[in-house]
Design goal:
Shape: globular
Oligomer: single chain
Number of helices: 17
Structural class: alpha/beta
Number of strands: 18
Strand content: 15-25%
Helix content: 25-40%
Length: 497
């Protein structure tokens, strides 16, 4: 046994034999669970694992994204994918691999999560239950993107209003009186909200303080993509107004905390905020990333240009940073301290619909409401809402449906419909799709005109990883297609040869 199951690791790690004993499933059982032909499952297995005629192993890259990252039993599902890649020799090998496709550019360097713990706090439920007094929101609109959004928004607005009312009532008072009023409000159940963002978002409308941030191109930024390629993207345009990079906003918050705590005589507490004397993005990089990777500097990344360097960085020779083309190329796996260098496999047994409440929803409602992305939209449409081209293409969030299901509900293309269940309700535009199966619909994620999260329950896995992708509900017609939808093309968005 390599690593036993515990609160921080909701499934055990061990040998291949250990994993096989826990997750062995026949192809017939898999076909019934997944509703995929057994022959297709066998074909896929042969593509991955059946040796070639000369006896050599096949090569395969397994890429995954939001469907399983935010899907059912996500921890075990991703582990099961990696089990297959390991078992077929596709980790550490040219032409093989297992990796998320990397929708986000990431280039941060962070300390241990020991101060948070694992599993971390379920923040949404903490706030809903009245916990917490100050909330910092950094570039995320929970109103459009979180699960259990209907309840979250309702409680969030009420708690924010308690503080706003207190601020209004004390507006003519001194600064000390205003602070006392805010403290009294949060102690009485209110929530003081600080929003750091580049635009005014829906959740930001409830904020008591808005700190304007700038974005890439308006600042220097290090970012990494799915192949671990770290680059420096340099500023080439001025920031808007008094906006600042996130790291410098965080630094100023820390500096203010240290100053105020020392004035209060809380030196030990103030010491936790020491060291944030950053004046530039490069200062933050040198204090963070460079502290753990001293060979990497802005100048050296600048010299690497668009090619950057693949992490982890091994050194610096002949004027170039030396990266790592392929992880585990030596076939040695020591992440969990195994002396034998062998890989660990996850006990990834099938547990049905794992998140609480999902199985009950499936038995109570007619339609499976999947949560999907669309190439035309960027993230949660935070900038797209002001893009006439995009809003003209989809004036309402599309809800893809099977044509026979639409006929049963007397729906035509473009009709406004409502999805509802015990979690809440959300609205959108019926969009007939030839590949949609009976009883299944797909609603676009993150629309400012209709949040799919309103009908997703609060169920998460053991590590508080949410299952956004699965909910069930019923559908009813609200209105015929409006003039806004009269020009919309309902041709298939899918590529056909």
């Amino acid at each position: 046994m390599g690593l036993a199951e515990d609160a921080a690791h909701p499934s055990g790690l061990g040998s291949l034999d250990y994993a096989m004993a826990t997750c062995r499933t026949s192809t017939a059982e898999a076909a019934e669970i997944c509703k995929v032909d057994e022959a297709d499952i066998i074909k896929a297995a042969e593509w991955l694992g059946k040796p070639k005629e000369d006896g050599s192993r096949r090569k395969a890259v397994t890429g995954y994204e939001k469907g399983i990252i935010w899907g059912n039993d996500n921890y075990r599902t991703i582990g099961a994918l990696l089990n297959i890649s390991l078992a077929t020799g596709n980790v550490g090998r040219e032409g093989g691999g297992c990796c998320r496709l990397g929708g986000h550019q990431e280039g941060y360097y962070r300390p241990s999560d020991a101060h948070v713990g694992r599993p971390s706090t379920y923040v949404d439920q903490l706030l809903i239950s009245g916990g917490g007094k100050v909330q910092h929101i950094w570039a995320c609109d929970h109103y459009k993107t979180t699960l259990n959004a209907a309840q979250y928004k309702s409680v969030h607005r009420k708690r924010a209003a308690l503080v706003k009312d207190a601020m209004d009532a004390s507006a003519a008072g001194t600064r000390e009186q205003q602070v006392d009023a805010i403290v009294a409000a949060v102690n009485a159940g209110g929530l003081f909200i600080v929003d750091v963002d580049i635009i005014h978002s829906q959740i930001g409308q409830n904020a008591h303080v808005v700190l304007p941030a700038c974005e890439s191109n308006e600042m220097n930024l290090t970012s990494m993509n799915g192949e671990r390629r770290l680059r420096l993207s340099e500023k080439y345009m001025d920031r808007y107004g008094n906006s600042k990079p996130d790291c410098l906003i965080a630094a100023e918050l820390a500096q203010a905390m240290e100053r105020v705590l020392r004035e209060m005589g809380e030196d030990a507490y103030a010491d936790q905020f020491k060291g944030y004397d950053w004046e530039t993005e490069e200062d933050a990089f040198m204090d963070g990333y460079n502290g753990g990777n001293p060979e990497v500097t802005y100048d050296r990344l600048r010299a690497m240009g668009n090619n950057g360097v693949q992490e982890p960085v091994q050194g610096y020779e002949n004027g170039k940073l030396i990266g790592t083309d392929r992880l585990y190329a030596d076939g040695v796996f020591t992440r969990h301290g195994r002396e034998d260098g062998k890989a660990l496999f996850l006990a990834a047994q099938w547990r049905g619909l794992q998140a609480p409440g999902k199985e009950q929803e499936r038995s109570s409602y007619k339609f499976w409401i999947n949560n999907v992305r669309a190439n035309i939209f960027w993230q949660n449409q935070f900038l797209d809402k002001d893009n006439d081209f995009i809003q003209d293409r989809f004036p309402y969030p599309f809800i893809e449906m099977n044509a026979d299901d639409m006929a049963d509900l007397s729906l035509n293309a473009g009709d406004l419909i409502e999805i509802h269940n015990e979690n809440g309700a959300t609205q959108g535009m019926a969009y007939p799709t030839a590949t949609a199966k009976r009883g299944q619909v797909a609603m676009v994620f993150g629309s400012p005109a209709g949040s799919q999260g309103n009908v997703v329950n609060p169920g998460v896995n053991e590590l508080v990883l949410p299952n956004y992708k699965h909910t069930w509900g019923d559908i009813r017609k609200l209105a015929d297609a409006t003039p806004n939808a009269a020009h919309v093309s309902f041709k298939s968005k899918e590529y056909t040869s």
